């Protein structure tokens, strides 16, 4: 059967053929129900193309194919070194196709092309990092008595459902596929309905790299049917999810039906603390990068900036100046653009609704807060800074997920830590101080999965990533990321001790 494909020309002139089917068993196929997702370019609100959307019936098929692949000798009996080689090959293919993949990402998601190119580097690096781990995943030998020992095996968990968001479509896929495949699992991955395209081009590379049919299946679809069907499926062994805390809680409940293993990366309202002994200009630059990058659509975005009273005015002045000079909003394919559109109209309206909330609750709008369309189109919003924000306000407590920051004041270190921890979230945090002792002490006391000292959001694939409290369960990336995709079997060996 011929693959479903469409010929496209991107706004930057790049031409390519994009598969549009569900990727099941290394083929691009039609959905059983005929349902489609139409993808929108957030820059001009025009349709890009439509792709197949999985129904629960398609999910059943994808899970069955993933189960068969798990038990098939071509994957079950493959050497760990060969598994690594396949991942290296996939990374090489992604590197060769980097420009097309980044083009699709920018077109569909709205992120600046330079950022999309950076995302592709991350994809390549993550795949190579886990490729190298594939044949270094092993257990222990545990001596017990002179006539007995035990050993442990690290085995794959099985069929893994991976449900990912739209803010970093390919990078989120790579974070999950890399360790899952290195550990020998099979996967059914559901991308977000807002950004279904780049992963289809990537799926073709998975097949070209030589992964056996069914090892990776990619089922675009809507959360409430395809996502729900995956999270509740009785033959899925694990669900790994990145997205909102509300959906994460729902998935956790759904996954309990057959006690699936779970990894959740959810929301955040990460604080960035500026102490009076900080380098204020550096703090202002990093605070800008920490909230305004990727249109503020980052789960770890440091969206709550807490500044010591004695340097509050100085910091606000420096920060607003950086925002005004650096955050150029515009066409994401233009080289000098820092900030493209929000991903969808829904997200755009959501961010604007928080501007109204901030004003209504009495915070000061220091800059931004307005739509910034190009030729009357696009989900562009001016980078928005609220100052004099109080801890009771919604803009201080709720995740906005946009180029939107709330700045508040603190008196001393104890108050700074108490304010930082006064949240249901616990994903990231940043501390600016030139006092080494204070910086490490505060890093230790903040309830967060990750703390940056004198930087923000410079995450790295070699370092564990994840949250505490309602920001998630488990870790991705780094060596810790492997633990999410293997389980330990203990084998007891009797060398002669008689019963
Ligand atoms: P979301 O609902 O959490 O979506 C994330 C993923 O979960 C998508 O693939 C989504 O599919 C899927 N999903 C939705 N409902 C599901 C269900 N019942 N069962 C299984 N899967 C389901 O997030 P969103 O609606 O796109 O964004 C809303 C807010 O979430 C944002 O404003 C932001 O605050 C937060 N968010 C956080 C992150 C992060 O990285 N932590 C990323 C994105 C969004 P569909 O997209 O097809 O519905
Ligand atoms: Mg889109």
Protein model, in words:
This protein is an alpha/beta fold. The protein folds into two domains: 2-267, 3-Layer(aba) Sandwich (Aldehyde Dehydrogenase, Chain A, domain 1); 271-460, Aldehyde Dehydrogenase, Chain A, domain 2, CATH 3.40.309. Helix content is 37%, strand content 22%. The chain contains 16 helices and 22 strands. The protein has helices at 56-71, 73-76, 80-96, 98-109, 113-133, 169-182, 198-209, 223-231, 245-255, 280-292, 312-326, 345-360, 394-397, 413-421, 436-445, 480-483, and strands at 5-9, 15-19, 22-24, 27-29, 36-41, 46-52, 141-145, 148-156, 159-163, 186-190, 216-218, 238-242, 261-265, 271-274, 304-308, 364-367, 384-387, 404-410, 428-432, 450-453, 472-473, 486-494. The strands form six sheets. It has a seven-stranded mixed sheet with strand order 16-17-18-15-14-19-20, with helices on both faces. A six-stranded mixed sheet has the order 11-10-9-12-13-21, sandwiched between helices. It has a three-stranded antiparallel sheet with strand order 7-8-22, with no helix packed on it. Helix 13 links the parallel strand 17 and strand 18 (404-410). Helix 3 (80-96) packs antiparallel against helix 5, helix 3 crosses helix 7 and helix 4 (98-109) packs antiparallel against helix 7. The radius of gyration is 24 Å and the shape is globular. It starts with a strand and ends in a 5-residue tail after the last strand. The model has no long low-confidence stretch (mean pLDDT 98). Bound molecules: NADP nicotinamide-adenine-dinucleotide phosphate and magnesium ion. Magnesium ion is lined by residues 39-40, 42, 108, 194-195.
């Amino acid at each position: 059967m011929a693959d479903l494909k469409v010929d496209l020309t991107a706004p930057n002139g790049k031409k390519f053929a994009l598969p549009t089917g569900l990727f099941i068993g290394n083929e691009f196929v039609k959905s059983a129900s005929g349902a489609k997702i139409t993808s929108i370019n957030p820059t001009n609100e025009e349709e890009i193309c439509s792709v197949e959307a999985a129904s629960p019936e398609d999910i059943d098929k994808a899970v069955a194919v993933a189960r068969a692949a798990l038990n098939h000798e071509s994957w079950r009996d493959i050497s760990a070194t060969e598994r690594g080689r396949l991942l290296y090959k996939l990374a090489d293919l992604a590197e060769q196709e980097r420009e097309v993949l980044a083009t699709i990402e920018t077109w569909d998601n709205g992120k600046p092309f330079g950022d999309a190119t950076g995302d592709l580097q991350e994809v390549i690096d993550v795949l190579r990092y886990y490729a190298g781990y594939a044949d270094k995943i092993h257990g222990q030998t545990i001596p017990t008595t002179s006539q007995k020992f035990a050993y442990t095996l690290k085995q794959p968990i099985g069929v893994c459902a991976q449900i990912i968001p739209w803010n970093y479509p390919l990078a989120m896929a790579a974070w999950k596929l890399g360790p899952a495949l290195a550990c020998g699992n099979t996967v059914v991955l559901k991308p977000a309905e807002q950004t279904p395209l780049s992963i289809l081009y990537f799926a073709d590379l998975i097949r070209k790299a030589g992964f056996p049919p069914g090892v990776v299946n990619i089922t675009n679809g809507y959360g409430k049917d395809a996502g729900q069907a995956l999270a509740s499926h009785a033959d899925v062994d694990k669900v790994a999810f990145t997205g909102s805390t509300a959906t994460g809680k729902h998935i956790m409940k759904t996954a309990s039906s057959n006690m699936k293993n779970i990894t959740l990366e959810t929301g955040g309202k990460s604080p960035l603390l500026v102490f009076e002994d900080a380098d204020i200009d550096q703090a202002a630059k990093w605070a800008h990068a920490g909230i305004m990058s990727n249109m503020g659509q980052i789960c770890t975005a440091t969206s709550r900036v807490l500044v010591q009273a004695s340097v509050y005015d100085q910091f606000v002045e420096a920060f607003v100046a950086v925002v005004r000079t650096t955050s150029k909003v515009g066409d994401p394919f233009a080289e000098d653009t820092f900030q493209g559109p929000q991903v969808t109209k829904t997200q755009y309206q959501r961010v604007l609704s928080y501007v109204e909330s901030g004003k209504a609750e009495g915070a000061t709008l220091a800059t931004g807060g307005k739509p910034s369309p190009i030729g009357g189109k696009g989900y562009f919003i001016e980078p928005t800074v609220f100052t004099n924000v109080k801890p009771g306000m919604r803009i201080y407590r709720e995740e906005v997920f946009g180029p939107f920051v709330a700045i508040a004041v603190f008196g001393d270190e104890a108050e700074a830590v108490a304010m930082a921890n006064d949240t249901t979230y616990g994903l990231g945090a940043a501390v600016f101080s030139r006092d080494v002792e204070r910086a490490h002490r505060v890093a230790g006391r903040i309830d967060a999965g990750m703390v940056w000292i004198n930087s923000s959001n410079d995450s790295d694939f070699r370092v564990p990533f994840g949250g505490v409290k309602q920001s998630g369960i488990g870790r991705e990336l780094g060596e810790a990321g492997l633990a999410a995709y293997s389980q330990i079997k203990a084998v007891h060996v009797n060398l002669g001790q008689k019963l």
